Amino acid sequence: TSKRGDGRSPAAKRLQVEAIWRVIRQLGEGGNLALAELTPKKALEMFTLLRKELKIRSDKELEFLKASLQKSKNGDQKLGDVSPFLAEFDGDSGDGQQIVIPGQHLTRPNAASEDEFETLVSVDPLLRMMMSVRKPCRLKMRSSHGKELWWLVKGGEDLRQDERVQQVLRTMNFALQNERQCAQRRLVVHTFAVVPASARVGLVEWVQDTRPLAELLDESLKNANVGILSHRQPASEMNKKVRTSSPSDSLGHEYSKRLGLDSLDPKHAGKHVGKHVDVPRLLVGYAESVKQLPPDLLRLALMRKSQTARMEFELRDHYSQTLATMNVCHYILGIGDRHTSNTLVASNGALIGIDFGHAFGVATQLVPIPELMPFRLTPQTLGVLAPLDAHSLLKRTMTFVMAALRKNRELLKQTMRIFIDDPTLDWKQFAQKNEQTESGQTVEEDLETFTSMKWEGVCQKLDGVHPTDVMLAEIKTQQNVWIRTSVVVQELVQGKHDPRSDRFGKWQAWKEGSAPFLPESVQVEALVAHATDPAVLAHTWGGWSPWA
Question: pTM value?
């Protein structure tokens, strides 16, 4: 029998008891004698049969659990069905059991010992199941200080990368706080706790009082019938093109049609994009997609609860400062996959990035349709700052942040060495996917090549190498040969198809000059021009919502 609180489910306990009795029945009452007389062949047959029967039973139990999750109302599931130990845990019972709330070593680094940390009192009996691919669940903990703390339990991902990204971001905050221009403006990138429990399971702190960017856009679309979209076209016509469930649903489908990817297998997307893309046609399609949304859609969603001019000013100030700081920090780390669901907006307007699975340029190197922009700076993102000059406002703040990070480049490099010295499981898988395996290298050699390449990219950004050259180097290692050798893709990165400015000419002029590195202000100017290039945004996966 098992002790109370061993953490096993009732199904696991039943299987254990049944396994014990099956072994006893197989060996008979004289168990020791029967075991001594057992030949290796008979033993193998017996335990193979036993394992097969128990696997059938465990599969049935798993199917039952999956069915119960699907039948749960409003995405809720009883905690006791998953973890009886946590469901029954009582931190006030006085039995001596204490569990420290995770993540406090990050928020209270000066604590003398764990005795000063908050401990777990109880856990909410209901789990909220998320409707994303891996079905993570939200867990509510009640602490000894009377707080309710929310955590996201995620499986199927190596959260060590997210944890390390948060460590680097905290080091970046340290660098910003020690630079006068940044400290005066209170420039920080928001962080949260990530606690990996294994290579595939972990906890992520739930950032409360926030909403995803996609949800805010969705809200504005649902309010179209009260006049938000009336100056463009009737709400009924708009909603035919943009489903109110998500702005990326129908617009993304239309955009995929323009790109010619709506009927293609994802495996063949790279060949189509690299070989058959018509840039002028894409630019026209992108412009039409942008016009389908009013330029103030996101701004109205953010400002709706601002009751005074001062509240609106402070919200826009928080928004612009966190947008500028986050974009520079994410650029240095090569954070990709910045679609509208991977950015949270706090009630005060601050932006918070989440989900860092695509870091160090992976979104440019490994996805079928590569991301060719350094960070997200789309029309709706800039529209929040109207009627101010968004470009000038952001460039000034971004220059301060870039200067602080480049000044502390050695500190940041030492912090990021962990990615090179101890690659995560995802990095090992990325290395195996790398096209360089065709050269006859072993997996270990491929991993070393992959990590050194990522390290070189970070060093180039901190030294001030032109952003165009940094991305061209990443494109040269793209796993898809059609993207890697595509002249059109290289021209998009260089800025040859930018209809607004001479981005290509400025890059060429710098190449012909003698200075190996850009000043911070010029580096930021090149980054903003690259991120807002309509030709680059037009060449983006529809689910990224480049028009929003």
Answer: 0.80
